[in-house]
Amino acid sequence: MAVQSTHNVVVPLEQSTDQEGPYYALFNSLAGSIDVIDQSVLEGLGLLSPLREDVGEYLSRRGYLFASEEEERGQARLLYEEMLRFHRATVRQPIVVIPSYNCNLKCPYCWQRLHHLDSPVISREMVDHLFSVALPALIETSSPDRVALTVFGGEPLQEEPALQDRVVQILTLGKDAGFTNGIITNGVGLGKALPRIVGKVDVLQITFDGPPDVHRKRRPLPGGDSFAPLATAVSDALAAGIRVRARVNVDESNLEHLPELSDFARSLGWLDNPRMYFHLAPVKNHNPRHCAPSESELLLKVLDLADRDERMRAFDLSGFGGIKYFRGFQESGLFSLHRFFNCEAQINCWVLDLYGDLYACWDSAGLKHLAVGRFHPAVEIDPLALGRWRNRNALDIPACRQCAAAPHCGGGCQFIAYEHHGDHAAPACDSLLASYVQAIGRNTGWLLQRARAGDHAVGLVTRDGVVTAVNRLFGLLDESPELIDAISCS
User: What is 94-346's CATH topology?
Assistant: First the structure.
């Protein structure tokens, strides 16, 4: 007798009650399938035996039913192993260099402040060694354009001559090697650094926390202004042809101010500039002694504000994974592929700092007990320490095995799991499943239209049988669109 997949999610499609309804969206995160079903099919899924033969065969082919739980677990394990190979073959390998842990801002929510990270500046000799000895041993790909080199901190663009020199040295060597270069910066020192980095950096990630007054309060610069120099520098960077990814940190305290930030960005022409991209990122709770509202609660408030204020359209909601993945499905018929890992810390990310220490995770950098080896004077990896990161996946976390979100969330952020539970194998639940449910529920009309028309990767199954079948694995049925990025860190 068949069993239901543990990854099935049923979402009522509101306002769908008619002479044929009500209808539900049946979504499976392992198979990446979504179909519209009616009440009779929903009840049949619960009992299994009353399902029509053609319906049972279709639901099995779409991944909603398996012969046994063991069969599904076996399929999931095979898919995980295949995704590791696929990821390495198609996604740039992240290489992160930290020239200093020092930062000029005093953001109250920063996890690095919890650990009192501070440091001098990396030496010229260490940078040379990093590129000549360490990276050749750590980079997996033979194509340099498949490497994403990021300069991180602390704050790498402070007005400190030695730090500026080392950042330019890192970017120059990265560009000479053929890497894609990026910098994560608070933007305060970007204006003065810009003349030296133009032509050497491809993309900047800059954090905003709201309009000027809110930003200054949440990201204070002792004795200075953290917003005005940032705003001027962003316009100058765009004029110089540099792509800018604006990460907008959001929690309940600044959410209502985001439409004002949208107004500010529009007034400077940023929203019309194709090189500028704004996305919301929920502030993570890195303090286990602090109780914060869940991401799922925050998501509902974000969506409510987006419904009330059209200015929120300026912000992509990609920080909430399910929203991003469903939009990708609407555009291409392709859901984010089942990965079972949360980010590249479980794949091939390397973080190299000024002391010669190696880490697998950006957030863990600077905490020496979480280092996985050293790259100076020689590259030496601790296989046990590295294995705690590389081998983590949702299939082996007991609390994740019956969770429908597991194929996509991968157990959540490993660093947060360690911070809160002291265990790499603990889960760190976020808003991914809730954002899937919200995205599906808020697109009732679109799903019903597609299912009835049979012009997208959405089927329709009712008491009359399989009305509209999805026979292709992925993609629109009437065209072959360009694939979106299938895998990304949410």
Answer: TIM Barrel (3.20.20)
